[in-house]
Amino acid sequence: MRVQVAIIGSGPSGLLLGQLLHKAGISNIILELRSQEYVLGRIRAGVLEQGTVDMLDAAGVGQRMHTEGLVHDGTELCFGGRRHRIDFKQLTGKTVMVYGQTEVTHDLMDARAAAGLPTIYEALDVSLHDLDGKQPRVRYRKDGVEHEITCDFVAGCDGYHGVSRASIPADKLREFERVYPFGWLGVLSDTRPVSDELIYSNHERGFALCSMRSLTRSRYYIQCSLDDKVADWSDDAFWEELKRRLDDEAASTLVTGPSIEKSIAPLRSYVAEPMRYGRLFLAGDAAHIVPPTGAKGLNLAASDVQYLWQALAEHYGGSDAGIDHYSERALSRVWKAERFSWWMTSLLHNFPETGAFGRRIQEAELDYLVHSEAAMTSLAENYVGLPF
Ligand code: APR
Ligand code: PHB
Q1: Is the pTM above the cut of 0.85?
Q2: For the chain, which domains are there?
Q3: Tag placement on the chain: N or C end, fewer CB within 10 Å?
């Protein structure tokens, strides 16, 4: 089989790239390790920057997002027993869209199926070949049968654990990483959200986040030890700990209920440079990971995809300027989001190793932040998304 672009991975990066390439008249196929049901079963954050919303509209998949998504004009920081609102709209003129990543993935999958575009689910042992030549090849096994695809380019959209980045010779790659000494215990519940907007809480017992998927489905997180296991936390224990990390009003009005999903995720910052090797281009989690504190993961995948589909369209239009500049252009925005995500994580979480001094520094920075329009504007413009 031959296509212009072979996409590895059917997450948001791969699906959005496939949709935008198709609209540009560029043939593509997606190879996905897991089943479609498995991919749709992932619970991931969905705070969309305006740039991401615009891309989903451009891809022709924004309808349900505008109908079911929640537009948020701001967020709240909770510390010292009080909540402080950061008014994105007043400070930046921009808002964010709260719409679960699972729904984004669903909408993109539906659009791909409607366009009759090929996706091979449960494609096993994907391997990439001749990436440094002009005719890369992708091999995979499906239902016991070996297949080979020849293409012009390979888009590595297969996440942190994928085969794409691993196919780049080690001496061609520079990696940057910070692993955080705690995790997030997350609970999904069919309960009314405790607040109209998200609440990020800095508490001496640990970080907490009150988020949502809709007006009837809430998503909550508490910072936990990396030694914790989900089985260590009953629903009641989770709700009681969450309440202890919130202000009195939130704690007293919190609607609790049975968890429909409960999981622990580690936090890391990670970047691989460059995001290109020959005819292979990395996008999304395949190239970088952010701690979820700044809700940047999906939005960085979107900006990578924006740069990549434009660069590939330029190539077929006769210019390689875009593909030659892709890695530098994408990394410029990636590192700014890495910085913001690291900063939010450092500001809001409990770091016992930094001691009483570190705690006082956090308290001073939070106090300064909520009393400085300049500081709140800086947080707001990073949270709503720096320009693509
Ligand atoms: N072959 C084929 N597919 C693979 C392989 C492989 N060897 N390894 C992984 N995959 C698939 C995974 O099963 C997954 O469906 O690649 C896809 C990668 O999707 P994501 O991990 O969601 O990454 P991405 O599409 O870049 O989306 C980034 O997802 O993890 C969140 O916070 C992150 O919101 C961000 C978004
Ligand atoms: C979520 O809703 O899962 C979520 C929201 C905002 C974040 C992280 C996670 O910063």
Answers
A1: yes
A2: 5-72+95-176+268-344 (3.50.50.60), 180-267+351-384 (3.30.9.10)
A3: N
